[in-house]
UniProtKB/TrEMBL annotation:
<dbReference type="InterPro" id="IPR000073">
    <property type="entry name" value="AB_hydrolase_1"/>
</dbReference>
<protein>
    <submittedName>
        <fullName>Alpha/beta hydrolase</fullName>
    </submittedName>
</protein>
<dbReference type="Pfam" id="PF00561">
    <property type="entry name" value="Abhydrolase_1"/>
</dbReference>
<keyword id="KW-0378">Hydrolase</keyword>
<dbReference type="InterPro" id="IPR050228">
    <property type="entry name" value="Carboxylesterase_BioH"/>
</dbReference>
<feature type="domain" description="AB hydrolase-1">
    <location>
        <begin position="31"/>
        <end position="265"/>
    </location>
</feature>
<dbReference type="InterPro" id="IPR029058">
    <property type="entry name" value="AB_hydrolase_fold"/>
</dbReference>
<dbReference type="InterPro" id="IPR000639">
    <property type="entry name" value="Epox_hydrolase-like"/>
</dbReference>
<dbReference type="GO" id="GO:0016787">
    <property type="term" value="F:hydrolase activity"/>
</dbReference>
């Protein structure tokens, strides 16, 4: 497991929801791969996979507005609807017409919305424990969403403990302390604390309800990977999703929770590379 405290995004794109930090790895001219993170995470969770894939692909990573190193502001629209639009804008900014796309958690819904609602085209799509099927949202998630204004006013120490516990629960074997520190860091200062509860308050299931009935329209090669020990979204949802997408292949990852990238990076990377290297 690598902590990679030097993981940095060096480029900026200004979109409808604020400044987006992004970067590119790997040699130019190689097949492009775009990685989308989930919530409450950032591109940091993709660091090991990104560097491995970048050996023979051009890899694009980014922090969504309101996440990681990207802009966090009061009143910011960080909903799934906004993120789908921003991702579509980014693909145009990067000049990518049909990239390979790999998306985790909330990022899966972003990639699906961009494709089904905004016309984004992908050469192939890999979904890793995505938010895609109703119902979703844990009791804690719903509680925070209903009382975000109250949670925003928690004393910093209590807020920090809550975020650490919540993020840590995404792993089955448990996160390395340095990794957990890096994952929670963006949420701990004043703007970060407000942003943490803002993104939960705006995480409305209607944004996946709008597209769930259209998964049968997906015509590209699709891989669905899922941590078998995911307690955030049960593995049964993965099998259900794969059955709804024509020709999709389902790949369970043993010993991994929701954060498959941290729990089983080698196994996930192997599955993704085998998929991405296919001669589509």
């Amino acid at each position: 497991m690598t902590t990679d405290t030097d993981w940095q995004l060096t480029r900026t794109f200004t979109g409808a929801s604020g400044d987006v930090r992004w970067d590119r790895l790997g040699p130019s001219g190689r097949p492009p791969v775009v990685l989308l993170h989930g919530t409450p995470f950032s591109s940091y969770v993709w660091r090991s996979v990104a560097r491995s894939v970048a050996r023979d692909h051009q890899v694009f990573v980014w922090d969504m507005p309101g996440y990681g190193a990207s802009e966090k502001t009061a009143g910011q629209d960080v909903s799934l609807a906004a993120q789908g639009r921003v991702f579509t804008e980014l693909l145009g900014h990067w000049g990518l017409v049909e990239p390979l796309v790999v998306a985790h958690d909330f990022g899966g819904a972003v990639a699906l919305r961009a494709h089904l609602l905004h016309g984004a085209r992908y050469r192939a799509l890999a979904l890793v424990d995505p938010v895609a099927l109703a119902p979703w949202g844990s009791p804690f998630f719903r509680l925070v969403g209903e009382h975000a204004d109250v949670f925003e006013r928690l004393p910093p120490a209590l807020h920090g403990a809550l975020v650490r516990e919540y993020v840590g629960s995404a792993s089955s074997p448990g996160l390395h302390p340095a990794v957990l520190d890096r994952l929670v860091e963006p949420w701990l200062d004043g703007p970060g604390q407000a942003a943490f509860y803002r993104q939960i308050a705006q995480a409305d299931q209607r944004y996946t309800d709008e597209i769930q009935g259209r998964y049968g329209e997906i015509g590209m090669p699709t891989l669905v990977c899922w941590g078998e020990d995911d307690t955030w979204i049960p593995v049964a949802k993965g099998r259900e999703l794969a059955a709804l997408v024509p020709g999709a292949r389902f790949e369970p990852i043993g010993g991994a929770g929701h954060l498959v990238q941290e729990d089983a990076p080698a196994e996930l990377t192997a599955a993704l590379l085998a998929f991405l290297r296919q001669p589509w």
